[in-house]
Design a protein that fits this description.
binds NADP nicotinamide-adenine-dinucleotide phosphate, about 270 residues, Rossmann fold, alpha/beta, seven-stranded parallel beta sheet, 9 strands
Length: about 270
């Protein structure tokens, strides 16, 4: 039972649900009848989405406006969900951000904060919920990595490394959880049309052909189907599977300079 069925006292905790892939994953889960707990810093956006999901699907949609980047905030969030009488049976660690540029030119605080959000928060929430799920004998965890996980990326050094961590961590966690009734899946999207690229200073993936930029709804559907199937890893789209294979197996001496040419910083 990789994705536990909906129940009145259970919820799907989705971080980074105020936009992009997280919001679409919330829509996918709600339309399957799951209650959701939406978390991000922009509370107004969460409220709008919660109203939309409740109206459309009659599910219980909770919101918590908070940052998940620090330990105490995560502990407080978990306590708040418990106070509301809900058990997290599905955990979607989606919140994350990137940056672009030569590492030495980027804001050091932004790079450090990226590791706290993209890496620490994922391990932190898995730490809070994996053992509780095992005790209940059911649960599903989705950690959002990226095709950036499959090779180092010049000009996105911290981001690619953070996603490599999530990919490695989740694939191992999937095996640690085998036989417990709990599943962990890593989602590795390629470039996807969300607020991500602009937030990262990448100008809406300028220069990439549009057929290489995915729709967040397609990515979210693939993710939830992967959770339903109990998959270890989901790489949505054939183009991304090819890119992941290239990233895994191409010799670094050829790959790194070639990748660098895609970015304005490397020309
Ligand atoms: N778009 C892509 O091309 C792409 C490709 C591969 C992987 N990904 C990954 O997909 C995930 C979702 O990104 P997206 O593309 O959907 O980008 P997005 O539209 O920018 O969404 C990012 C989400 O993270 C939330 N967030 C950021 N900092 C947070 C914090 N401290 N605490 C809580 N929430 C926080 C944001 O909400 P608030 O600002 O309201 O807090 C927002 O809801 C990320 O992990 C990203 O690395 C994206």
């Amino acid at each position: 039972m990789p994705l536990p069925p909906p129940a009145p006292d259970s919820t799907c905790l989705i971080t980074g649900a105020s936009s992009g892939i997280g919001a679409e994953i919330a829509r996918e889960l709600a339309q399957r009848g799951h209650g959701v707990t939406l978390v991000a810093r922009r509370e107004e956006r969460l409220r709008e989405l919660a109203d939309e999901l409740t109206d459309a699907h009659g599910i219980r949609a909770e919101i918590v406006g908070a940052s998940v980047a620090d330990h105490d905030g995560r502990a407080e969030l978990a306590a708040e969900i418990e106070r509301r009488g809900l058990a997290v049976e599905t955990l979607v660690n989606n919140a994350g951000y990137g940056s672009a540029g030569r590492f030495q030119d980027l804001d050091p605080d932004g790079e450090e904060g990226m590791v706290r959000l993209n890496v620490e928060a994922v391990v932190g929430f898995c730490g809070i919920y994996a053992s509780r799920m095992v005790d209940r004998g059911r649960g599903s965890i989705l950690n959002v990595a990226s095709t950036a996980a499959f090779q180092p990326l010049p000009y996105q050094a911290t981001y690619a490394a953070s996603k490599a961590f999530i990919n490695s961590f989740t694939e191992a966690l999937h095996t640690d959880l085998a036989g417990t009734g709990v599943n962990a899946t890593v989602l590795c999207p390629g470039p996807t049309a969300t607020e991500f690229a602009d937030e990262a200073g990448m100008n809406s993936f300028e220069g990439l052909p549009s057929f290489l930029v995915d729709d967040a709804r397609d990515v979210a559907r693939a993710a939830v189907e992967g959770m339903e199937a109990g998959s270890r890893s989901v790489v949505p789209g054939v183009h991304n599977v090819i890119s992941a294979l290239g990233g895994r197996f191409a010799p670094r001496t050829l790959l790194l300079p070639a990748l660098g040419r895609f970015y304005p910083y490397g020309r």
